[in-house]
Structure formats: structure tokens, C-alpha cells
Specification:
Helices cover 6% and strands 50% of the residues. By secondary structure, it is mostly beta strands.
Length: 428
């Protein structure tokens, strides 16, 4: 704990010193009113260059986090009864950094974003981006890296989640990001759409030479009927303390014929986006039957989300279902379809307007294996400068048979126990 206190104290002191020196100004993130374009959208940033031929803006997101998963050592059993080892994390990490270089080229209708993205916890760094052309408010065409539109948290709120990352329910079943083409816009006032055609379910770790000829297809319809907005970036929590009820309703759908992208002689797949709800990678050899490897399968997911913000109260509810089917495997399997269903509910309240927020979260699954993974927890957000751009977060979460895994988020597959996380993040 002393090492954590030192890290946070140094971060706070550095930012306060820069602000006093006039070197740092906090942008008004209320201007970053993105609601449908996904978490790759920059914040307001800092304008570096602007001419009649083009512009250049620099935006930054950064997160430092302490994470403690307990009990630290466990043995758990997957749905086949195989024993698995869980080693909980207990570390401090400069977890995520994103640098956005964005602007317009030749005409304000043609915009670009080039992103430097790194997850230091996994030693991964990528440079990616997209080009977008806005015909009018009804049609904006983009090409490049974008999200498959499976759940709400991939369609704008990042990083304005209640915690510093997604809930287990969102993380366990969701699709990922890929190269493709997308079309977004307004159908009628307060009703929006987003359509995405991508190379695969998730491009992370997948080289183009391994892609098949199958595309992912996804879409979202979203409406904000009462006020026509849902806060900056459509984020969670009523930080702005709405005086009139702000509401949001959305439906999303994804379908993809997904491949493991690795020869069947190799037990570990390159495709790591899809997991069984017991936490085991779906394309891992032996995930459904001993010694059998799934080569291809259909992934289909749908979700419905509802949100309310009023007088500092925020309520977000999402229901989702995922279907895995049409398996191509190296041997016989005990089933031909896997159906998993779940929900996430998140409730928050501003205790001190624009300074202190309390929240609670709950996820639950009705899954194929009747393991019923769930989580229940809560936390506190402190905003030292009364802006969403700088936040301190503390969360305590009890997890039962975690269906989510990996070091991107807050969860390790199979965990049953308590996770404590303390973080500080900035969006500039």
C-alpha cells in the first residue's frame, strides 16, 4: 500500500505543479459530445496547427492503476471438470496510454485520426486510425479501425465508465475492434444509426495474411428521446446533474464467422476474443471436448441498453445474449450450439456535484454450463478539478467464477474472490 500512495501522490503533485505554472489547462470535455462513434474517438485535445489546408490536434488519455485480486492463489474447475490455476495480480501499473493525432485534410468534411495505443501491462503497442468523410448529418462514412457494435460501452462512453474499465458482464461476451468500413448518422431527430463491416471479430494479434474471406457485420440503433443528449460522450453517471430526465435506448447486433487463425496442431489460438463463460478460450484445444480443437464457428450477439440521468442519479441497464454455432472442429463435440445470456446494472449518484460520485455494479449470467458467473461491487469517483477529464477511482468488487479474463481489464478467468482497484486517469 505505501508504494501505491507514493505513485498517486506523485501524479497529483505533478499535475498541480503544471497547472499552476500555466502549462496545463483542462479542456471542457462537455464539448466532446460523441455518442455513437466508439471508444477510439479523441477527447477535445490541444490544437497544434490549423490552416485552410488542414489541421492537427493532439489528445491524450492515460491511466495508472493499482490492482489486487484475492485470494492470490486458487484452483478452479472449468465446465469439463479440468482443474485450472489462478494466480491473482497484486501490482501497480501505468496501464494504458492513448495519443490521438487528429484533424481535417483539405476540407473540414474529411477528417483523420491516427492513434498510438499501448497497454503497458501486456507490453503491447499499436499505431492505427481511420479516415471519415461527412456528407451531412445523416451520412458519415469511415474506413479504418473501429468497433464491432456488440455492447454500449464500445460506442462512445470510453473512458467515462463508472470504473476505470468495463464490468465483467460487458467484458466476457463482447466483440472487439477490427479494420473495416462504417457508416453513421441521424435517421430522424434524436434517432441515430451505426453500421460496421469488418475483417473479423477482433484484429488484435491477427495479421491480414491470416484473415479469411468472412466479414463481421454489426449495427446499432440508438435514441435519446427526452433531451436529445446523454452527457459528454454518452458517458455513465450524471456528472452534469441534469435538471430534466435524460434517457437513452439502444439495440445492437453482431454476426461473424470467426476463425482461430492458428494451425490446429498448435493448442493456443491467435483468436483470443471469444471465451466460454467458464473463462477458457473458446478456440483453445480441449475447450469443448478433450483433445478437440474448434477451427471455425459462428458468433452472434445482440444487446439492449437503457439509461437514465436525472439530478445526479444515473441508472444504466443492459441485457445481452450470445450464440456460438456451426462449429468446424478436428473431432466430435458434445454440443452444436452454445447460448449465453446476461445483464449488467450500474447505478450511480453524485453526492457532491461535480466532485464526488458513489456507484454500484452487478453482472449476472444464465450460461450454457449453468455456472452462473456474477459480480457485485461498488466504488467512489473523486474529480479534483470538477471536470470529468481528471478522476480518482476506488472500487471493491466481489466476483464469482469470473467469465472474463486477460490483463486488459480488471478480471482474470476463473477467479472467485474480491478485487480492489485504485486508479487515476486523465483525458486531455
Amino acid at each position: 500500500m505505501p508504494k501505491l500512495i507514493c505513485v498517486l501522490a506523485l501524479l497529483l503533485y505533478s499535475m498541480e505543479t503544471m497547472a499552476q505554472a500555466g502549462e496545463l489547462q483542462y479542456p471542457d470535455t462537455a464539448q466532446a459530445s460523441n455518442t455513437i462513434s466508439g471508444e477510439l474517438t479523441p477527447g477535445k485535445g490541444f490544437n497544434l496547427i490549423k490552416t485552410k489546408y488542414g489541421s492537427l490536434n493532439l489528445g491524450i488519455y492515460a491511466l495508472v492503476r493499482f490492482l489486487d485480486q484475492t485470494p492470490g492463489n486458487q484452483v478452479w474447475f472449468d465446465h469439463l471438470g479440468n482443474s485450472q490455476t489462478f494466480v491473482g495480480r497484486d501490482d501497480i501499473a501505468w496501464h494504458r496510454t492513448m495519443l490521438w493525432f487528429s484533424g481535417f485534410a483539405f476540407t473540414p468534411k474529411l477528417t483523420y485520426t491516427a492513434t498510438v495505443w499501448t497497454i503497458f501491462s501486456t507490453q503491447q503497442t499499436l499505431v492505427y486510425g481511420n479516415l471519415q468523410y461527412t456528407f451531412n448529418k445523416n451520412f458519415r462514412l469511415g474506413v479504418g479501425v473501429a468497433p464491432n457494435l456488440s455492447i454500449r460501452s464500445m460506442q462512445g462512453p470510453f473512458p467515462f465508465y463508472l470504473s476505470t474499465d468495463r464490468t465483467m458482464g460487458e467484458e466476457a461476451l463482447r466483440s472487439g475492434f477490427t479494420n473495416g468500413a462504417f457508416l453513421t448518422g441521424q435517421i430522424i431527430p434524436r434517432l441515430y444509426y451505426n453500421i460496421m463491416i469488418g475483417n473479423n471479430l477482433s484484429t488484435l494479434g491477427i495479421k491480414s495474411a491470416k484473415d479469411t474471406r468472412d466479414f463481421s457485420k454489426s449495427f446499432t440503433l440508438m435514441t435519446m428521446p427526452t433531451t436529445g443528449e446523454f452527457g459528454p460522450r454518452g458517458g455513465q453517471g450524471d456528472f452534469e446533474v441534469h435538471t430534466k430526465p435524460a434517457t437513452r435506448f439502444g439495440v445492437s447486433f453482431v454476426n461473424c464467422r470467426e476463425n482461430r487463425f492458428t494451425d490446429s496442431s498448435v493448442s493456443g489460438p491467435d483468436e483470443t476474443q471469444i471465451r466460454n463463460t467458464d473463462g477458457v478460450l473458446f478456440f483453445q484445444t480441449g475447450s469443448l471436448a478433450p483433445g478437440v480443437t474448434v477451427i471455425e464457428a459462428n458468433y452472434t450477439m445482440g444487446s439492449v441498453d437503457l439509461g437514465l440521468k436525472y439530478q445526479g442519479l444515473g441508472i444504466d441497464l443492459e441485457f445481452f445474449g450470445r450464440r456460438l454455432s456451426d462449429f468446424e472442429a478436428t473431432g466430435p463435440l458434445p454440443l452444436s450450439v452454445i447460448n449465453d445470456y446476461g445483464y449488467v446494472v450500474q447505478i450511480s449518484k453524485m453526492i457532491i456535484p461535480r466532485v464526488l460520485m458513489l456507484y454500484g455494479i452487478n453482472s449476472y449470467f444464465w450460461d450454457q454450463w449453468n455456472r452462473h458467473p456474477w459480480e457485485a461491487g461498488g466504488g467512489v469517483n473523486v474529480y479534483p478539478e470538477k471536470t470529468r477529464s481528471w478522476r480518482l477511482n476506488l472500487q471493491v468488487d466481489y466476483i464469482y467464477k469470473s467469465a472474463a479474463g486477460g490483463t486488459f481489464g480488471l478480471y482474470t478467468a476463473g477467479q472467485t474472490g474480491t478485487t480492489l482497484t485504485i486508479g487515476a486517469d486523465i483525458l486531455l
